[in-house]
Structures are given as structure tokens and as C-alpha cells.
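To the wet lab folks,

You asked to see what we're planning to order before we commit. Fair enough. Below is the target structure as C-alpha cells, and below that is the sequence we designed to fit it. If anything looks off to you, flag it before the synthesis order goes out.
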């Protein structure tokens, strides 16, 4: 057998193993997150409307979004119950020395708890003479808590709300037209799942500028950002420390400018400056307006007003 071929093959295998080892090492340093069962106290099967928030569907969407972020290890759903059961047993019988003081028996860094707290619809009607226009607005809210699994401390507690036009109709004389998606709840849940994933991810790994210039590169892709999003850039100043407790209160932030996301990829996005000063590498980005929330029921952007402003 050709010795050169054997050496080449051995080198290729060794290089592949080294690459895989580096990837595994990189992944081993990622925070481990377990998303617990999403509750839906808004559900009510006894009323005539029979409210069903489809919480399992929302949990699946949230798991998908968190996986796509690429900065976490997500525990499989069938393991979460086992971890919570182990955690309960360890809290009951632990000696305060096991697994970080009796909490983190499942090797999880953060536990995510959620509850769908609002699901409803309202009508918006404009009527004049023989003409009438009706829009159906769907409202969805979810409360999220991120808990440090090693201490039981609540690290983040926020409420995420989304409202969106999910159907509309016009009538004039004997003519009427109605339009809307086949599953508006699923559409609005997807928007909410993306906002929740952004909330969790950016509280641990902020959105940052990785390269400045005429085209500004951001460190998150399509799992967090959408084309058309408006974001604000800030430079971080001196850290603020509470001398009495030693707690880091954060840093002063100086506004630099507003950007518009022009392109999203799997792992990064591109943006252009709209107003203010162009940010440089390391500037912190905060989402100002989500493009996905400014869409009509058919998924297209709402029409801009023509002519002069009133």
C-alpha cells in the first residue's frame, strides 16, 4: 500500500478529530438551559369561547428559537422532568454541599419558567356612511422567569407582549371582503417566542457590534433579529459599583445612533446607520422596534401613508 496515501489519510483523520475536539470544547463552555413546561392559566374550557393558548406549541417554538441562537445547550424535554425531580429530592435531603449547595443536581445552569397570561382579540372598526372597515387584533402575553439552577435565584423576570392584526374586512354597499391567516395564534406565538428567546439570550450575551463601517455587523443572526428591525447603539461607560454592598449596578450608557437591520444570516446580521453617530466594535445594541410586529395579517409590511403628513 502507498505509504504517502496512508500518511495523508492518517493526517486527515487526526485533523478531523482535532477539529471535533475543539468544537466539543467550545460547546462544553456554553450555558445549559432547561425550559420547563409552559403553563397557560388563561385556558378556560368552560366558557363559550373555549380559550386554548396551545402552550405546548409555544414551548416547542421557544425551544427551537433558543437552539437556533447557538449560545446555549438546550436540555431535551424528556430530561427536564427528571432534572426537576432530582432537584426536588436534593433540596429535601441534600447536605448543602452537594451540587452547589443542594440545587444543581442535573448539571443545568438556568431553568426557564413561563406562563401564558393573556390571549384575546379585540375589534377595531371604522365606519362612515355605507363604508365599514373592521380589523381583528390578537393580543398575546407570556411571563418568563430565568432562575439560576445552582442557587435558586431569579435572574430575570419579564413580561413579553405581542399584538398583531390577524384579520380584516371591508364592506361597502352590497360588497364585502374578509381576509386573515388560517392559524393566527401560531403566527403570533412565533413572534412572541422570538422575543422571549431574545430576552433570555441578550440578558446573558448582549447584542454587540462586531465590526463597524458603512455596513455594521452585529453578533446575532435570524434567531434574534429580523430584516427591517430598528435597533439603537450605545457605548458603555464606567461601571457603577454600590460601595455599601459591592454590587455591580451596570454601566452608564451613552446613545450613539439608530440602525436598521438590512440583512440577517444564521449567525450574524448587517445593519446601516439611520441617524446619529456610527457605532464602533464593542458597542451594545438594544432592539427598538421589531419588524415582525409591524406586519399585516397576510405577512406584508403595513402600507406607509402617501402624500404630505397631516
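Sequence we intend to order:
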Amino acid at each position: 500500500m502507498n505509504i504517502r496515501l496512508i500518511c495523508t489519510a492518517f493526517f486527515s483523520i487526526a485533523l478531523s478529530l482535532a477539529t471535533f475536539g475543539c468544537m466539543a470544547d467550545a460547546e462544553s463552555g456554553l450555558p445549559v438551559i432547561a425550559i420547563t413546561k409552559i403553563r397557560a392559566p388563561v385556558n378556560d374550557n368552560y366558557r363559550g369561547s373555549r380559550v386554548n393558548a396551545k402552550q405546548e406549541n409555544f414551548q416547542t417554538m421557544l425551544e427551537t428559537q433558543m437552539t437556533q441562537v447557538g449560545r446555549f445547550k438546550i436540555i431535551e424535554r424528556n430530561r427536564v422532568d427528571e432534572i426537576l425531580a432530582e432537584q426536588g429530592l436534593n433540596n429535601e435531603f441534600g447536605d448543602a454541599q452537594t451540587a452547589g449547595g443542594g440545587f444543581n443536581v442535573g448539571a443545568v445552569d438556568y431553568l426557564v419558567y413561563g406562563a401564558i397570561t393573556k390571549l384575546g382579540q379585540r375589534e377595531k372598526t371604522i365606519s362612515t356612511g355605507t363604508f365599514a372597515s373592521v380589523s381583528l387584533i390578537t393580543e398575546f402575553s407570556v411571563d418568563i422567569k430565568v432562575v439560576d439552577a445552582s442557587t435558586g435565584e431569579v435572574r430575570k423576570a419579564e413580561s413579553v407582549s405581542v399584538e398583531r392584526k390577524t384579520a380584516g374586512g371591508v364592506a361597502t354597499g352590497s360588497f364585502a371582503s374578509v381576509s386573515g391567516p388560517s392559524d393566527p395564534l401560531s403566527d403570533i406565538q412565533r413572534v412572541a417566542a422570538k422575543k422571549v428567546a431574545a430576552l433570555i439570550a441578550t440578558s446573558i450575551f448582549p447584542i454587540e457590534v462586531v465590526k463597524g463601517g458603512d455596513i455594521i455587523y452585529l453578533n446575532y443572526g435570524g434567531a434574534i433579529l429580523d430584516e427591517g428591525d430598528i435597533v439603537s447603539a450605545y457605548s458603555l461607560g464606567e461601571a457603577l459599583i454600590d460601595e455599601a454592598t459591592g454590587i455591580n449596578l451596570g454601566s452608564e450608557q451613552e446613545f450613539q445612533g439608530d440602525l436598521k437591520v438590512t440583512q440577517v444570516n444564521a449567525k450574524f446580521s448587517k445593519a446601516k446607520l439611520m441617524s446619529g453617530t456610527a457605532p464602533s466594535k464593542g458597542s451594545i445594541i438594544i432592539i427598538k422596534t421589531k419588524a415582525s410586529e409591524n406586519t399585516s395579517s397576510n405577512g406584508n409590511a403595513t402600507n406607509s401613508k402617501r402624500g404630505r403628513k397631516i
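Structural context that might help your review: The domain at 207-297 is CATH 2.40.10.410 (Thrombin, subunit H). DSSP finds five helices and twelve strands in the chain.

Thanks,
Computational group
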